[in-house]
Structure formats: C-alpha cells, structure tokens
Backbone:
C-alpha cells in the first residue's frame, strides 16, 4: 500500500481514483522491524528528516480521490496512520475517505471468510467506479 500510494502521488495525472489498504503513511511514526526494514531498504537513511520528507503523509497531494481502508485492531500498522493521512488531505481540501473496520487486524483482506474482507472489497470497487 505504501509503495503504491507513493507511485500514485508521483504520477498523479495517470490516476482517476486511488484505494490504499492498511498502509504505512508516516515513516517517522512506526516502530519495530517493519519500520526499520522500510527505512533501510526504501529510504537508505537514518535521518528522521529524510523519513518525513519521503513519507506518503507529506507527499500525497495528488488531486485524485483517495480511499483509505484500515482495521482498528491493526498491530502492525496502527490505524492512526490512516487517520493522520485522512486529516492531512482533508485539511488541504483534497478528496479523501476513510473506511475503518472496528476490531479487525492488519491484512484482513487476505481472509476471505471475514465478512469485513468482502465489505472492504465491495467498498473499494464501488469507490473506483464512481
């Protein structure tokens, strides 16, 4: 989700709408092994200023409408990542929607038995077809 959102921001004129599922949107605000690997492999820097400058939170000014989908029980990427990106885009007047699934963990779209996975997929398809 993170890389796709950065790509969409870099080529904003090529996208009509964008959907992002449980992504990392601020490289400065994430702990643990995933954050360490992302910063080392993607950003190749130990400088928090570089992390901030390259985070989707600070680079996602694309005009295309954006749908963020996140579970509130995500322990890998806290839902506050999506909330902060939603707030930042809304403050700039950019079209953004946030769809939260209470009590649902990271990667829930991978479990087709979860009703929330179907709801999220349906919401994303409906959003893209608007």
Residues:
């Amino acid at each position: 989700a993170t890389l796709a959102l950065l790509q969409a921001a870099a080529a904003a004129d090529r996208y009509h709408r964008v959907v992002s599922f449980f992504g990392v949107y601020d490289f400065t605000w994430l702990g643990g092994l995933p954050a360490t690997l992302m910063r080392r492999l993607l950003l190749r820097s130990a400088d928090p200023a570089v992390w901030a400058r390259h985070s989707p939170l600070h680079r996602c000014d694309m005009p295309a409408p954006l749908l963020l989908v996140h579970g509130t029980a995500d322990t890998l990427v806290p839902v506050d990542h999506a909330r902060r990106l939603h707030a930042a885009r809304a403050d700039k007047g950019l079209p953004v929607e946030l769809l939260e699934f209470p009590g649902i963990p990271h990667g829930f779209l991978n479990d087709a038995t979860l009703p929330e996975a179907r709801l999220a997929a349906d919401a994303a398809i409906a959003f893209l077809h608007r």
